[in-house]
Design goal:
The protein is mainly α. It has one domain. The chain is built from 14 helices and 4 strands. The strands form 2 sheets. A two-stranded antiparallel sheet has the order 1-2. Helix 1 crosses helix 6 and helix 6 packs across helix 10. The two termini are about 30 Å apart.
Length: about 280
């Protein structure tokens, strides 16, 4: 019992560290957004978009073919993206689970939804369900492919674009730039809040093009969760805890959907069943 308590205490420490890191990056993003609406400050630091790692993907074709970046982006986008790339080379999609402010806001909204509705059931798509709602496996499978389609469309559009193609529908801009200048951005904001409360990490799972870019790194990143078969009791608590709703989680620890959030390790009641290792 002492060992189990010690293991659970260590897991809580990991999660607490993650929460602190998430808040730091979220606050930093908010401060960047606030700076760019202060009189005289926006001209000093460039557009809000220059801090977006995905902006590097959007402006890459323009930069290599013309030597110029798309409007509202700059070479700083490449520096930010290289930082994200470094994290991904070591730990797969850990950026999504630990640093991305949009991911953090989704976690907060899902937790708020769970507390707000508790054991209540609401009518959704003709059925009474708990929130956050878990989409059926059949629909979930094809919905996850949408983010790759979004990425492909953006890459194609970026070859002909003047501004970053995602700019006017990007939830980061809607939530953090404090410049809701169009009805479309307001629509994005409202849709983001509703979907995040209805389904955990909806944007991450189904639509995020940056997640699509980083997903392949999960297959070979050296820092990874490893299952100890002798300790695992197949209780499936980890399946329920996973914010990305990865099915049969213990057999899919290298899934492209994993964001290395360690929620599965936190909820596991068995000592050392799931261990974070550098292989």
């Amino acid at each position: 019992m002492a060992n189990k308590s010690k293991s659970q205490e260590n897991n809580r420490s990991d999660i607490s560290t993650r929460t602190v890191i998430q808040i730091i990056f979220l606050v930093g993003s908010i401060l960047i957004g606030l700076r760019h609406i202060m009189p005289g400050e926006s001209s000093k630091g460039g557009a809000f978009d220059v801090f977006c790692p995905f902006g590097a993907v959007e402006t890459f074709w323009s930069f290599i073919t013309t030597g110029e970046t798309l409007k509202t982006t700059s070479p700083l986008n490449f520096s930010v993206f290289l930082g994200v790339l470094g994290v991904s080379l070591l730990a797969g999609r850990a950026f999504c689970g630990w640093m991305c402010p949009i991911g953090t806001l989704q976690d907060f909204l899902a937790n708020f939804s769970s507390r707000l509705f508790g054991n209540m059931k609401i009518k959704l798509a003709g059925n009474k369900v708990h929130l956050p709602y878990k989409i059926s496996p059949r629909n979930d499978a094809w919905l996850r492919s949408l983010k790759y389609l979004v990425l492909a469309v953006i890459l194609l559009a970026s070859a002909f674009a003047i501004y970053p193609p995602l700019r006017e529908i990007c939830p980061a801009r809607a939530l953090l730039s404090f410049q809701l200048t169009t009805p479309l951005l307001w629509s994005v904001l409202i849709a983001f809040v509703i979907t995040s409360m209805a389904n955990r990490r909806f944007w991450c799972k189904y639509l995020c093009p940056l997640g699509a870019v980083l997903a392949p790194f999960n297959k070979f990143a050296p820092l990874r969760l490893v299952l100890n078969q002798d300790s695992c009791t197949s209780c499936r608590r980890c399946d329920s805890a996973c914010p990305m709703d990865i099915p049969d989680l213990t057999n899919n620890l290298r899934s492209a959907e994993c964001i290395e959030c360690l929620e599965c390790q936190e909820t596991c009641s068995e000592k050392d069943a799931l261990e974070l290792r550098l292989l």
